[in-house]
Design goal:
five-stranded mixed beta sheet; D-Maltodextrin-Binding Protein, domain 2; 41% helix; 2 domains; single chain; alpha/beta
Length: 260
């Protein structure tokens, strides 16, 4: 009887040890990306994913010695699909917030840029509750920008929510919204610097309130995958140290998006 019990215990320990090994084997990593948030991510005409987030993802995988697969996912379902194990991590300009931390774990930040409003040139709209009264603001649904404008100005404005940032830009050009609120870098490169956005401009201050926007943008991972969080944190530190991050940054921006 003792022999069979000992054999059972040994087998159980072997299975346990094997599961630990499997849990720590990140030689292959599937990364969820959006592909609809230039300059951080977009899809070329040939279907190829491009952008800052995409290059950071590949650089981190190279640093970890991991084989990466990019999985494109609409923003609305990006966390549910992570939890459903469609992929292992999200690199999609996701701000680290307390609300999201209830569902997922985050790495350290890999960039931090402020949010800003934009208005049509000549509209004279000012960013106060009085100035925004009765105005319509376009935001991407279920983002920190959506949460911020809802909490801070929701009693003054009408909020129109979109599945992608590009949809919000199109409605701005069509005159269906009076203002946009988004990440300032994404909106400048993805809209204001384009022909469609030539008649629009930033207005008001940049917003970085940790209450809404957290300490920056991080990589979301399932809570049980703490070892992957550690590996990604080490990789973020390494590419910051060895110049890879700076090289990628310079391809897309004229300043350090990492922030203070």
């Amino acid at each position: 009887m003792r022999k069979s019990i000992n054999a059972f215990i040994a087998a159980a320990l072997l299975v346990f040890a094997s599961s630990i090994t499997m849990a720590g084997d990140w030689s292959k990593v599937r990364i969820g990306v959006e592909g609809a948030y230039p300059p951080f991510s977009w899809v070329e005409a040939d279907g190829q994913l491009k952008g800052f987030d995409i290059e950071i993802a590949m650089a981190l995988c190279k640093e970890m010695g991991a084989e990466c697969t990019l999985v494109q996912q609409d923003w609305d379902g990006i966390i549910p699909s992570l939890l459903a194990k469609k992929y292992d991590a999200i690199i999609a300009s996701m701000s680290i917030t307390e609300e999201r931390k209830k569902k997922v774990a985050f790495t350290n930040k890999y960039y931090n840029t402020p949010a800003k409003f934009a208005r049509k040139k000549g509209s004279g709209i000012e960013i106060t509750k009085e100035g925004l009264a009765g105005k319509t603001v376009g935001v991407q649904r279920a983002t920190t920008h959506d949460n911020f404008v809802s909490q801070e100005f929701g009693d003054a404005v009408e909020i129109k929510r979109y599945g992608t940032q590009d949809e919000a830009y199109l409605d701005a050009v069509s005159g269906r919204v009076d203002l946009l609120l988004a990440d300032s870098v994404a909106m400048e490169d993805g809209f204001l610097k384009t022909d469609n956005g030539k008649d629009w401009e930033f207005v008001g201050p940049g917003y970085t309130d940790v209450k809404y926007f957290g300490p920056g943008v991080g990589i979301a991972v399932r809570k049980e995958d703490e070892d992957l969080v550690e590996k990604l944190n080490m990789a973020i530190a390494a590419i910051r140290e060895n110049g890879t991050y700076e090289a990628i940054n310079k391809k897309y921006f004229e300043f350090d998006v990492y922030g203070e």
